[in-house]
């Protein structure tokens, strides 16, 4: 993408996926004068999606969001993007007790370009993809993620509910070597939006470098193309970013989760 295209894509992402975000599952999205947030139950993603702040308003807004989620009894995440203002917003969040997690690159690509670049991508011999449609499949995904990422996650409960109540908004699969799950990933397909989001993709160490991750990107790109999404979006780690760049993704900005857990 040219610089002008990147700026346009970032503006579109900010508007459609952050300011105009729809709720996940049974969660609720609230729009205040200066922020957009989502709140649901303990298994939902709870946090701040977008904010419009400056030096005079940032601290009060951070305090207001802490009070809101405290009243709900929920920990929450403030999803900070590098271009969000004010420039020291991350420092202000940290001073208020929110803890930064590792930063990731927000990467986007034209769906058609990824489909074209991955037309010849194949799974290695002996590996097959199994689409996840039920709790048994979600359990296989959770097993892979636990072994790859080594931290607990609420995504299995959210995904089970999503598959039961809004199956068209997600596509998920596990790569199996025989009966052993070696990689798992999903695509979020928000209705009426331009971006399909790719999540997961965690691969067991002994299976990295064999094309499994690329094959899951390729399959999800084809799903997104069939569903009419012009763009793909990924929050990419340092490990996956080089692979994605070879498939046509470019970095729009950096995103850092700031997490507040009152009882931590």
UniProtKB/TrEMBL annotation:
Listed Pfam families: Acetyltransf_1
Organism: Streptomyces tremellae
N-acetyltransferase domain location: 127-264
InterPro entries: Acyl_CoA_acyltransferase (IPR016181), GNAT_dom (IPR000182)
Domain of life from the UniProt record: Bacteria
Protein name per the record: GNAT family N-acetyltransferase
């Amino acid at each position: 993408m040219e610089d002008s295209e990147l700026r346009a894509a970032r503006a579109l992402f900010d508007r459609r996926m952050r300011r105009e975000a729809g709720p996940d599952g049974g969660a609720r999205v609230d729009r205040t004068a200066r922020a957009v947030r989502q709140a649901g139950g303990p298994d939902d993603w709870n946090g701040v999606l977008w904010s419009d702040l400056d030096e005079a308003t940032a601290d009060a807004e951070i305090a207001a969001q802490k009070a809101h989620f405290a009243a709900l009894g929920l920990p929450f995440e403030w999803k900070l993007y590098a271009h969000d203002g004010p420039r020291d917003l991350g420092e202000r969040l940290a001073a208020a007790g929110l803890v930064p997690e590792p930063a990731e690159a927000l990467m986007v690509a034209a769906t058609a370009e990824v489909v074209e670049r991955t037309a010849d991508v194949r799974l290695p011999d002996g590996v097959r993809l199994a689409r996840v449609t039920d709790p048994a499949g979600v359990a296989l995904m959770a097993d892979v993620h636990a072994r790859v990422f080594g931290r607990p996650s609420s995504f299995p409960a959210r995904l089970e509910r999503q598959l039961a109540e809004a199956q068209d908004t997600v596509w998920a699969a596990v790569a199996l070597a025989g009966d052993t799950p070696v990689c798992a990933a999903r695509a979020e397909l928000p209705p009426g939006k331009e971006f399909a989001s790719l999540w997961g993709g965690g691969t067991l160490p002994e299976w990295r470098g064999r094309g499994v991750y690329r094959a899951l990107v390729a399959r999800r790109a084809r799903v997104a193309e069939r569903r009419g999404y012009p763009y793909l979006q990924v929050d990419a780690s340092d490990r996956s970013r080089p692979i994605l760049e070879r498939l046509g993704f470019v970095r729009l900005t950096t995103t850092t989760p700031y997490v507040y857990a009152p009882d931590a």
